[in-house]
Amino acid sequence: MTRYLIALRRSFVLAGLAIVGLLPLLGTLVALVFICSGVLIWFAPPVVEWCRRYVNRMRHVATELTGVELPAPYRAEPPEPEREADGWYRDGNSLYRKPKWVWVNRRIEWVFEDPATFRDGMWLVLNPVVGLLLPLVTVFAGPIAVRSYGRWLHGRLSRTPTFQGLRWLNKHGEAFGHLMGFLAVSTLQFLFGLCVLCTIITPIGAGTTVAYRKFVNMLRDATSKWSGVEIEVPYLPEPRFPVARPDGLYQLGKQLYESPWWPALVNRMVWVQRDRATWRDLAAGVLIPLVSLAALVLPFGFVAAAWWPPFDPDFPVWARIVLPFVLTGIGFACSPPWLARAVARFARLLLGPTEASRLALRVERLERTRTDASAAQAAELRRIERDLHDGVQSRLVAMGMKLGALEALIDRDPEKAKEMAAELRRNSSDTLTELRDLVRGVHPPVLTERGLGDAVRALALDSPLRVEVSVDLPGRIEPPVEACAYFAVSELLGNAVKHGQAERATVSLGFERGRLVVVVTDSGRGGANPVRGSGLRGIERRLGAFDGKLTVDSPPGGPTAVTLEIPCQLEPSSPKTSTCSETD
Length: 584
Prior knowledge:
Layout (H helix, E strand, L loop, with lengths): L1 H19 L1 H16 L6 H23 L22 E3 L2 E3 L3 H13 L2 H27 L1 H15 L9 H33 L5 H23 L22 E3 L2 E3 L3 H14 L1 H31 L10 H17 L3 H15 L3 H58 L1 H29 L2 H6 L1 H11 L3 E8 L5 H20 L5 E9 L2 E8 L11 H11 L4 E5 L6 E8 L9 E7 L1
Parallel strand pairs: 5-6
Antiparallel strand pairs: 1-2, 3-4, 5-10, 6-7, 7-9, 8-9
Helix pairs in contact: 1-3, 1-5, 1-6, 2-3, 2-5, 3-4, 3-6, 5-6, 7-8, 7-10, 7-12, 8-9, 8-12, 10-11, 10-12, 13-14, 13-18, 16-17, 17-18
């Protein structure tokens, strides 16, 4: 009896904490509004961190009351901004005099790209309902209900949910929360879209539209996390900044301007107004809330009816207790996971790219990568020319002069001539070694003779890391793609040592759907970003020549996983390669 009373008391404490949890839920929504509207954006990270402190406090209290361990799964905090040598603070391609904005941007990425933030938000939505049910369930189940609640918390707040007793409730409760999330975010999109519609033909229209697109991209990311439905970004690339004519003026149509700012502004206005994705986003802001509301009519109706103040007084007491559970269960049953995915697919129809936008993006990317490839090729030729001129050519000129001196010494001083001949032999050997290193930098011989798999293994042997190489290729890849992947892996392993301070790394080579897929993972400190890293940008330019794709997943604290996808073809009559090796 004592255990039963203790469990009942603890259930009321946990129910009270669930009600208090509405405050951090409101704080999370306020932080989302701050970020979406751009107003008081620096308050968003502290608000989310305050919500995290509440959830962590809830973890400690729930661990003590339920006996179920609830570890904190958050990513490590981002490092503090560091001043560059020129006195500026850099964040991507932007420079700041003070570290405040860099700190704000990094912490916003940290809190909102962490999956634990999403789990906390879903728990804050569901916990008031489950917490209020807990005392009623404890009346019948006793201590079992409290411990089951603790295991439910573990499933909601941990990296790997382990509680399976209420798996059906978890899945349908998540779907109900996703539908509520779609409705809330799309309603904000509708309100934001009204502001864009009122300003789109004004000079500030381009700025408001770009801000609106950032918000819609958040909806795209949320759709991917909630339902697994990926929505690509469909926007046409931004127009280039105007370039001056030979006479120093800037042309816009038939008009010339002394300053580039008005042509740049007009180009951006035309860019956002002629892009069909702008109008599709505005249409989505109207239609997605309606579809989400239609999907929520039955679930929300039953859940609201379950807790509407009181039922008919003629109902017996047991019916007043049981009926809310029954109606809540029916409400969750009316929100299956497939319904949330259906709403997400509808959103993809409006927010995803059309074939015309895909073609335009592809043309723009090919033009940009062609320019980058030409510039990289010219730079590489200049490097080879410089190395030949300053290195091998100088050695050969010196050897030629010494050969002339050797001819004069043969008759007069044979011993001195022998010493000079030996020195010339050493110089020729050094020159040959330098020439081989130069050729190896252009195209490694092992890549030509043994293929990409063995070349990467040789690269791993030379690396100071403990590298595990896994190769599963159906044959030899076309040589240009092999060279591209080889130098990309070399750069990534070098970055892992130099910047990531890693100790171990894995390299996986595979071939899927006509693409060479290379995955390089290291145990470093993370934080890699293609925008901030010149090495990663160089890899992107190298891949761009082959219409390849670079994906970086590098949370602060690590690990870092970089995926390269390069369209390619197999060489005819090449044997399949499938091996795995580790180097120490």
